[in-house]
Structure formats: C-alpha cells, structure tokens
Amino acid sequence: MEKTLPSPGKLWLVGAGPGDPDLLTLRAARLLEGADLVVHDGLVGEGVLALIPAHVERISVAKQRSRHTMKQDLINELLVRETLAGKQVVRLKGGDPFIFGRGGEELDAARESGVAVEVVPGITAAAGCAAQAGLPLTHREDASAVSFVAGQCKDLTDQDWSGLAGHGRTLVIYMGLATATAIADKLIADGVSPDLPVAVIERGTTADARVLRTLLTDLGDLVAREKVQSPSLIIVGKVAARADALDCLGAPGVAAQIRDFI
Q1: Hey, what's the torsion of the CAs at 98, 102, 105, 108, to 10 degrees?
Q2: Closest among 177, 152, 173 to 228, alpha carbons compared
Q3: Cα–chain-centroid distance for residue 240?
Q4: Which of 7, 49, 55, 6 has its CA nearest to residue 35?
Q5: 3-state secondary structure of 19
Q6: How far is CA 28 from CA 89, 177, 226, 227, in A?
Q7: Domains in the chain, please, with CATH?
Q8: Which residues form the Tetrapyrrole methylase domain (predicted)?
C-alpha cells in the first residue's frame, strides 16, 4: 500500500497594518486563528500579536537598524522549510507586505521552492498614520500625486529627488529618522523649497502617537531635539500643513498629541 502523503502546507504573506489591531483585516485575523506557525516582524503591534491563539507557534524575526535577529535569506529558508513540512505558515509583516516589507523577496523564494503562497495586503503606514493625523495624502488644492521612498537608501546624494516633492506632490518617507538631515539637505539641493511643510508621525495609529509639524529646513533639527523614535513616518508637502485637524487624536483614551513648529 502506498503511503499517504501529508497535506501540503501553505505560506501566507500577511500585512498586519501600522499597529492598531482594529486596522487588521478580517482575512488576516482568520488566518492567524488557523495558523500552525506565525513568523512575525518587530513592527507588528502588540495588540495584533495578542490575537494569535496561545497554541500557535510563534517565531520573531525582528529587524532593527544595523542589527537583525535573522538575516533575510535565513528567514526565506525558514518559511520554505516549515511550509514544505506541511504547516500553515503566516508570515506576519508590519504594514503591507509589498511596501518596504521585503514581501517580494519572500514571494520569490517560495515560488522558486515550489511552495504554495498567497499575499494578503495590509494597511500601509502611510495610509494609516496619515488618516489618524487628519492629514490627506492627496487633496484637490494641494496634491494629486504621492511618492513612497525608503529613507535608508544607499547612495542618497547620487539620486535625483527633484520630482518627488514640491508643487502638487506629497512625499512619504519610511525609515527616514536616521537620515532626516541628509534627506532635507538633498531635497533642498534638488530644488524643493526649504519652507515646504513637513509632518513627522511617531508611533502612528497607537494610543501614544505623536505628530510633529515643521518646515523642511528644520526637519533634521526637529528629529534630534524632540528625540523622535522609530517607528516614525515623514510626510513632505503642502498637505502636511493640514495635520492640525486632529479631532481623532482627542478621542477618549488616546494620548496622542500634535506639536507645531511652523
């Protein structure tokens, strides 16, 4: 008699959203309940992690600047190995898997290994944090285009950022705290007005969120003097001046605040 092969496993690349567990999609929540293993990032909110059933195995592969719990190639190997072993594996990633989440790399690794894989989108930080801050990324009077940029990019000074910010545009910078001064200098050197409004959203969508608003020329100094911590998002453009419409931040139990340096 032939041996019965084990049921095939499946890998799910799931977006956890920007932090607030209420922003997790229904599909993501259902997958967490049915998972055998959840491999999660450090940016996944504690409220989201609390939704994982106690019997489900968890592995943290948190990354921090210049220090990784597990390198990306080893994460890829882990995901493939556990899925091929027949497990339902949820790779839980902060925000959206395909927006600065390395979801593309993990998808490629799964496909190359013959692993069944599916992507479940999540609310990216730009949408979630801007919404909480009352900051429209597009506006008929101010911006008809939005660009997402990684602030920890290599060879920053060699890149042309002249078309990313300015009239009619909003620039959203992920992972930009450590290079905030260089980013401001680069944008100004490429022709962006030093007086363009900027908003820095710290710990967006959480109860202790903080919104700091200033001008582009002051961005680096603001990050330093206010001791802004990760995770934070930088939004450059005229729409940042609208971040003072923060009725949502005054909701009961929400300690979020806005500080204005314009």
Answers
A1: -30
A2: 177
A3: 19
A4: 55
A5: coil
A6: 12, 29, 35, 34
A7: 10-120 (3.40.1010.10), 125-260 (3.30.950.10)
A8: 10-219
**Token couple for 4:** 């019965």
**How far is it, in rounded angstroms, from Cα 161 to Cα 184?**
11
**Along the 262 residues of the chain, how does pLDDT read in single tens digits?**
455 556 589 999 999 999 999 999 999 999 999 999 999 999 999 999 999 999 999 999 987 655 557 899 999 999 999 999 999 999 999 999 999 999 999 999 999 999 999 999 999 999 999 999 999 999 999 999 999 999 876 666 677 787 889 899 999 999 999 999 999 999 999 899 999 999 999 999 998 899 999 999 999 999 999 999 999 999 999 999 988 644 444 443 334 455 666 6
Closest CA to 206 of 94, 90, 121, 108: 94
Q: Tokens 């956890």 appear where?
A: 16
Residue 42: both structure tokens together: 């450090």
Active site residues: 41, 63
Run of H or E including 12: strand 10-15
